[in-house]
Amino acid sequence: MLISCPLTQMTTIEKLQIMENIWDDLCRKADEVASPFWHEDILKEREKAVEDGSETFTDWERAKKEIRKIFPYVIEAVSVCCLLPCG
């Protein structure tokens, strides 16, 4: 299926909402997609960095709240079907 959206006519907020909706949907179907071979190496590097204290991590929900404090125009995704004529 080919879906096209009027990207040149969309606002940044509308584009971000579409991206968030796509990521949310992909997350619900994560078991359908195999990770690339290099993901394991990257994850091990990041785990080691957390263990040795050179990096920390934040819960995704908390991270989104912090991002929205800095970029208040990034809002919760609303159903794209209600916003845009895509098809």
The percent of residues in helical segments reads 40-55%
Low-confidence regions: 77-87
Task: Please provide the ordered H/E string of secondary-structure elements.
Answer: HHHH
Number of contiguous helices: 4
Proportion of beta-strand residues: under 5%
What structural class should be given to the helix and strand makeup? mainly alpha
N- to C-terminal separation? 9 Å
Which overall shape is indicated by the principal axes computed on the Cα atoms? flat
Averaged pLDDT = 81
Task: Please write out the topology.
Blueprint: H1 12-28, H2 39-51, H3 60-70, H4 80-83
Keywords:
single chain; 52% helix; 87 residues; mainly alpha; 0% strand
Walk me through the structure.
With 87 residues, this protein is an all-alpha fold. The protein has a domain at 13-23 and 37-83. It has helices at 12-28, 39-51, 60-70, 80-83. It is flat and about 45 Å long.
